[in-house]
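User: Run a structure prediction on this.
Assistant: Running it now.
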Amino acid sequence: NLDSKTGLGILNLLRETVAKQAVTLVLVTHDMQVAGFADRIVHLRDGLIQRIEQGHNAQWRAAEVVTGELL
């Protein structure tokens, strides 16, 4: 487990790398705050897709992880 500041730094690094390299990143997590950092969220249950949704203001959501405040 990482502290919030380090976790945010890694999420930002991943997003920058994806943008620069024009690649797709698959990130698996149970943390909905981390999932909210994504452009798209795919919800699975028992190996089946339950629903797909767009991420929610990725940068703002990541800041919420660090500050604990809704921005």
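The CA atoms of residues 42 and 48 lie 10 Å apart.
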